[in-house]
Amino acid sequence: MQRILIVTPHTLSCGEAITAIHVANHLARHGWQANFLASPNTAKLIPPKFETRLLAGDLKENQVVWVQTVRRLKPKLVLFADYPLLALQAGSVPLANEAWIESLELLDAALLTLDHLDLAHADRLPSLPPPNRMGILLPCPIHNPSRQAGPKLALFRYWTPPATLDSDRRSALRARYLGCSRGLLVFHAVPRWTQFMATIMNQPLYNFLPKLLIRYLAGMPDPITVVSVNDGTLLPSLTVNDLTIVNLPNMPPNEFEETLACSDLMLSENCFSVSLGKAVCSLVPAVLWRHTLNPIDVLTSEDDLVSSVAAEMILHNPKSLNPWLAFPSFDPSLVSAFNSLKDEPAIQCLEIFGGTSTHRAIRALLTDEREREMFRARQLAYRERVSELPTPLEAIQKLTGC
Predict the structure, then answer these.
(1) Pair 113, 81: CB distance under 8 Å
(2) Which residues sit opposite 268 in a β-bridge?
(3) Helix axes of 205-216 and 304-316: crossing angle, nearest 10 degrees
(4) What confidence category does residue 127 fall into, taking pLDDT thresholds of 50, 70 and 90?
(5) What was the pLDDT predicted at 159?
(6) Would you tell me which of 115, 206, 261, 309 could form a disulfide with 120, CB atoms 3.0–4.6 Å apart?
(7) According to the model, what pLDDT value does residue 220 have?
(8) Could you tell me if 328 and 197 are in contact, meaning their C-beta atoms sit under 8 angstroms apart?
């Protein structure tokens, strides 16, 4: 039996670890033994069928755990999720230093990393260059599935819409939030790192997001329930007219993906979100919020609700209307340095302070059959391109021969 050691060291993000879990499940079905070295944050997501050791100490303690684990398991392959993010001191447990990086070159195991953000290049990571022999796996759906592979670079498909989501399961999930009545289910997901950054930057958007949602989701033919998955405290739970906002803590990955797949619309402020790609493959219309308007134009918007919200936000923090493509801190120039879904035609990018034009676009996604069919065609094209990619095992074999 071949062994893989998967390292998920991140403290503020979960998407990389969830991709790694899908890879582990796939390999386990093909006879591999998957083991994890995980941060306390990501360890909570890993199914108990996989042996997991924690990276919960300081640099020296974590490196001792690393050495002990590698010596005991003697893995054929070590997979990082993601190696480039080890450079983020605020977002990963301490593990990497110069001596540790040098030791990777001597490790008797193949080395691979997932690279969700397209950062695994020495010129982008001067403080944490990847080992020369490390291969790079680009997961889809998140990367452009039409991108060209290379000798040390492989795209792969790690996810397909939940096979267990039959009509009975779909009806049960929708009834959990909609009750017995007809209605529309809107799925909103906020990663931990976004909430963390918004808090330390004193960005008040989430205090006012319910007001914007009331504006943009008004006048629909059926009642709407917004399920917002975050830390359980981010948005207030409320019911106004035909709109209900349900604020939920983080879900187990399978429940999260099933709820997303049975929704009528997804909303996200994060252009790096792997969940956006999953929405596309599930044929759920996805809206990616952005803010690229001039703050003066927002403050003087003809939409009274938008201008009112903007004025309140400015009072809270004068920088709260600074542009972003990934809330709260990634402006357009910064986002361009990373892989993201901001230019994917199968995702609808909308201005979060767009007022009437944003309301019309969302209404069309939910109620205009012609618009929905055009959007669905783009989604199907994306999903087809993803389906043609290698599986995790096929991509691993291509890069390592394992």
Answers:
(1) yes
(2) 288
(3) 180
(4) low
(5) 84
(6) 115
(7) 92
(8) yes
